[in-house]
Amino acid sequence: MKILKFGGTSVGSPERMKKLLDIINPAEEQIVVLSAVSGTTNSLVEISSKLLKEEKQEATSLIKALHQKYNDFVIELLPEGDFRAQGQEVVDYHFNFLATLANDMFTHIEDKVVLAQGELLSTTLYHIYLKSIGVPSVLLPALDFMKIDEDNEPDIPFTTKHLQPILDQHKGNNLFITQGFICRNSFGEVDNLRRGGSDYTASLLGAAILAEEVQIWTDIDGMHNNDPRIVKGTKPISHLSFDEAAELAYFGAKILHPQSVFPAQKYKIPVRLLNTMEPKALGTVISTESEKGKIKSIAAKDGIIAIKIQSSRMLLAYGFLRRIFEIFERYKTPIDMITTSEVAVSLTIDFTDNLDEIVKELNSFGSVEIDKNQSIVCVVGDFGAEKHGYAAKVLDSIKHIPIRMISYGGSAYNISLLVNTDHKVEALRSLHNRIFE
């Protein structure tokens, strides 16, 4: 069995939803994971935000506008008659439910329920569409088998235990439709895998049932060797290792959710990145194998804060770094890059909600400097210890650009450079022109 995930753009209109059958083969065993229709999750986030602020009139207006959008969607997607009536009934049910939330007390628990409505709508409407054209399919409720534990980590054994019996009940059926993104938490409440989590759902399902492969269908033909929005002449990468793909996803390659690599890697399930608009394009295969001895790609991550802590107490001291890192741990703030000297440590973060509190505690160690408006530029490839010349080539490519930090050797797969965001575009283009000339 294969897992096929389609993002919001791929189901962004009735026409695109219908065209999915150009890719999906109902004769093959497949679980199709759908995101919400493009724009829906953003609208639901806005509705939820209004309800949390008790701006009920504004929320009600937004609910009505989105309801009308789906009324039009149903008319275009489904033929007149029973199937359109079924589709309209589904849409009315979900939006009447949203309307009731505007009249009750609204908390962060209901917030998660609101965000789940997009995937519930897209999958049910697609299931009805398939029925309307005589294509058999089974709708799998993700809330029955997708679960996260008390640490918000996915429970793959739970998914295997609860999904496999459902699949066994439907022996002889090839096509299964389910929701991406949504799940239940350890309390049984509706929750989610955070933004971009449909990729994660697909990877987790692939791991849970040991699928043949996971296919992530988006609107770009695989992972490129640089950001095509900024750099001209980029090309898709044919093969990446799981580690290389994880680095690129984390450091800015938007095509893939950063966490989605790990379940597939653990269970050795190949992941294929493909283009809905060009189904015949080869895309990118992510697996345990990769081409050795070459630089693969460049990515960048914005919104970075650099923090430098300088203290003579660090000299020849032990436990100093541990005490610094404990501050970030207490405030649940991940660290991206780290460099150290005898009397200073520099690091970067991108989660700034608790920055003031963190800096206040760091001041007890010594002087603290903060640099905002920074970007991490990440060069990914085969940088094993026995390789030579790559670091020099990377640095020579951007010798005209000021560099705030360099991280090399922490991984065999990347060189990370911290630059002012104003220099990011020039850095990406210069690296591309020199490395891929």
Offer a quick outline of the entry:
This protein is α/β, with parallel strands linked by helices and 437 residues long. The protein contains 13 helices and 16 strands.
Q: Sketch the topology as an H/E string, one letter per element.
A: EHEHHHHEHEEEHEEHHEEEHEEHEHEEH
* CATH fold-level assignment of the largest domain: Carbamate kinase
Helix/sheet category: alpha/beta
Number of domains: 2
CATH architectural name of the largest domain: 3-Layer(aba) Sandwich
Measured by DSSP, the beta-strand proportion falls in 15-25%
Calculate the mean pLDDT score and round it. Answer: 92
Q: Name the strands of the widest sheet in spatial order.
A: 3-4-2-1-7-9-10-8
Radius of gyration: 24 Å
Q: Separation of termini?
A: 41 Å
| Uncertain residue ranges | none
Question: According to CATH, what is the class of the largest domain?
Answer: Alpha Beta
| SS field, number of helical segments | 13
Relative helix content: 25-40%
What name goes with the CATH superfamily of the largest domain?
Acetylglutamate kinase-like
Mind summarizing the main beta sheet? 8 strands, mixed
DSSP summary, beta strand count:
16
User: Any idea what the shape is?
Assistant: globular
Please provide a written account of the structure.
The radius of gyration is 24 Å and the shape is globular. The protein has two domains: 2-218, 3-Layer(aba) Sandwich (Carbamate kinase); 295-436, VC0802-like (2-Layer Sandwich). A hairpin with a 3-residue loop joins β12 and β13 (344-349). The chain is built from 13 helices and 16 strands. α4 packs antiparallel against α5 (108-132). Helix content is 38%, strand content 21%. It has an eight-stranded mixed β-sheet with strand order 3-4-2-1-7-9-10-8, sandwiched between helices.
